[in-house]
Amino acid sequence: MRKKIVAANWKMNMTQAEAASFVDTLLRELGDANDVEVVIVPPFTAIAKVSEALGALENIKVGAQNMYWEKSGAFTGEISAAMLRELFVRYVVLGHSERRMLLGETDEIVNRKVRAAHEASLHPILCVGETLEQRENGRVEEVLSTQLRGSLAGLGVKEIQETVVAYEPVWAIGTGKTASAEQAQEAHAFIRRTLAEIADEGTSNKIRIQYGGSVKPDNARTLMTQPDIDGALVGGASLDPRSFAQIVQGAAALAEK
Ligand code: PGA
User: With a 6 A CB cut-off, is 168 part of the ligand 1 pocket?
Assistant: First the structure.
């Protein structure tokens, strides 16, 4: 059984004070959700605050929204994996469509970052997903396959297994348009088949694939009931600790079955 993983991608939101108050409320709302792995992904400036507020809690981890692949040096504005590790970061979101589209990240760049993350024992949350135009032109599988193969190139089986994949159809991000459970399941199943080709079937069956794109408390559970959907990467709804707690609780309820 794959343990569900639900992550809060705060994007460029939340000051340190807001982050601390979010964690306070979340811990109160969440109760016992030990059957789900929860990851809070603040902007860099609030990571230390969130780590401190979470203390030694084992099932809630901290993630980062990006990193650079070099270890140190003249890379103004960039952050290394070791810098993140020092702040107790365990996951790093890589290849998010906002970075691919606004900042020109290619599969090759994402691949360098994915490899550097694994070298530093950070688990990548690798985002893949098609645009509306690509979907309408029947290119979903081609796009997903290219992104997965490009981003995971050169990785060993163990590293692939320790990567979380997030299927985020670009047309569903921040738009209020969620993929239907069937559309999402179809894409997730394709991603799992592709991962089996890249690694092997046993490995592919262990990899967790999150869905992302307008996940809200009222649609999260239906999505996560699908056999190949192992959690959610939540943007907008993760800014409210109560909504986010409800999404986590939805995942926890499924785990208990
Ligand atoms: P959204 O964002 O939930 O606001 O659609 C998801 C994401 O970009 O990870």
Answer: yes
